[in-house]
Model the fold of this input.
Amino acid sequence: MAAEHTLTASTNKQPRTATSQKLGLAMIAASLLAITAVVGTMVRYQQNLTEAQIRSQGLSLAGVLSRLSYEQLTSPKTGMGPIQVVYQSQRTDEFAYATVTDRAGRPASAAASPGVVVPPAMLPVTPGDVAGERLTSLPGSGKRVIEFYAPLWSEGKVAGHVRLGYYQPSGTIPMAQVPLLASLAFPVFLLTPFFYLLLKREITPLKKASLELQNQIEDGHFKQLEVKVSGEFGDFIQRFNVFMDRAQARINELEASKSKAEVSQKMLSYKRERVEAVLQAHPDMFLVLDETGIPAIVSDKLLGLLDLSRDSVIDQRPSVWCKNPAVTEFLLRCGDTNAPGYISATMGFAPETAPERTIEVSAYPLFSPKDKAIVLGTLVIFRDTTESIVVKRGQGEFVAHIAHELKTPLNVLATYSEALQEGEGKNESFRIEAYNVIHDEVERLSGLISNLLSITQIEMGNMVIDRQRVRIGDLLKDALENVSRCDKDGDIDFQLDLQRELPALALDKNLFRVAINNLLTNAIKYSKKGGTVVLSAEFVDDSVHIRVKDTGLGIASEDQARIFDKFYRSESEEVRSKPGHGLGLALTSEIIALHQGSILVNSTPGKGTEFTIVLGKKSGAILQGLSD
Amino acid sequence: MKQILIADDEPHLIRVLRLGLEKAGYRVNAVNDGERALAQIRETAPDVLITDIEMPRMNGKELCKAIEKEKSDLKLLVIVVTSHPEETHRIWSSEIPGITFLEKPLSLRKLCKLLDAHFAALEDK
Done:
């Protein structure tokens, strides 16, 4: 983990040697400077000392000489006078000249070092300045000279001046002091390599530590510095290592908490994805609003219905994307958790993008599992109720149909019975007609109710078929005989065409009989006079085909697709003139479906119709062995 | 003689209504679908129409709506024989006013009383 911390570091190792050389040179320069400073200070000190000696000597000598009179100092005019004596006695390297000048500054007596020209006198301006010193320079050589002067008296008046000139001490090193200075400079110079080595010895571990740090920075892997050193730097390294340990521990802690955070983030993201996946799999459309009423999650189905993109909905106020004002207002109310009566609410609307659909919107507050007083947001469910409305409408229509179908024969019964009561009963022919009509209508009612019960039971899944071994040939023969009895006028030619070797079938005998009966009665009902009804059965391609064929009215092509629908009757006048309630074929189709068979219709209007029941191997109806 | 038109696809009902109404002194015409009923109304201008709702081609409601459009020049009593519940009648009446409903099963006696009252009221005017 630490290796991940790659620090960028400058890797210029070359200047390190140069730095070391520079350090050596700097130390030599420093030692030379130190020597120069020491020598300079000494020379300066020596100069000051000499100057003080000259001043003390000059002033005191000028003072002594000024006590003598002018005449004393100027006589004799030739030979060794007092001035020459003074000159001789003071004859040192520093002494330049001694002279006496009169009041006008003219020299009266003088003694000077060889080659020295005494500078002209500078007469005092004020009485107080009659004695003193001045700095001047020798004419010709230009050497700097300190001149001490004092007045000479004669008869109570200043008759002239005595002047003593000393060379000003120069800043040069006197040759005599060279050995001393050299002996002072040598140890200083010797200290240089000593300090250099000492410094180098101290610096080496620092350099090692630095190099190690450099390598660690380059490797990106941090560990303790392994530099063996004692003293202050050793302490520093120890503390530094402790610091590094703690820093590493802290880094490890941070790494651990970072990976924990990553794991929990992944978990959160996974949980969120899972919740979203669960929600997305829900058949209803939904929208999850946060506590401020802003969408946080939206189902793909809702986006599809409203023809919106996810980005246009998520984090956007409903007023921005919702085109239906009523729904917008509803959603805004969901966001307002303080609104009175906010618990759950429902509304319905037809979306602009699918106006034929009816969408029911329900809002449910999402309470915090820890504190039910806290509302985390709102779950808004958009339920497409179009289908259930259609189903409800369908159920209503079904009931209305039944009522109509039941009341129609009742209507006939009521009117006929009333007519019989009203006196029409005396009329013989009407009475017979009424008996027949009443009988037929009662039969019709009974048939209708039986069909209705059967079909309802099948549709509700309550009908359990009771399969028995059936000799299909016998069943068909019996059915045709029964039905042919209804044709009292003998207008129709009934034919039975059975293949000889039909397999035995496993069928619910009673139900299958109803199905065949319905097909046969339909065939008779819609047959013309002199028509033919053929009932046939054959075993082809592992399937039993049972056909009911008539030469009757036929079924219009537009009606063929709907003849198996409940209560469907053709608009055709010829069909409508025959009694019927539109349940027979629906029931037949349901019964065949219960037997896992299929029913097909083939009809030509005006020529006739053929219904084919196919019971294949898959239906489980075909048994081993022959029916006979 | 007052003229009555019956529109119904149930032949037995037509038969017995015709019998009863003719006996009560009305002239009766019968058709078995809405389209024919409308054509007959335009042609013969009957005084009363007795119609079923479920009929081929044009059903009772469509027939009533078509009559409503031409009502200004037709003085016609429309009696709808119905098996629908009363709720349906109210919806119908709000759309097509002036319809009399008679519930199935129909009573000839009640029908004759209704017709007598209707014609008596007309004569009083």
Q: What stands out?
A: Chain B touches chain A at residues 9-13, 15-17, 19-20, 23, 32-33, 53-57, 81, 83-85, 104-109 (CB under 8 Å). The mean pLDDT of chain B is 85. DSSP finds five helices and five strands in chain B. Helices of chain B lie at 11-23, 34-44, 60-69, 86-95, 108-124.
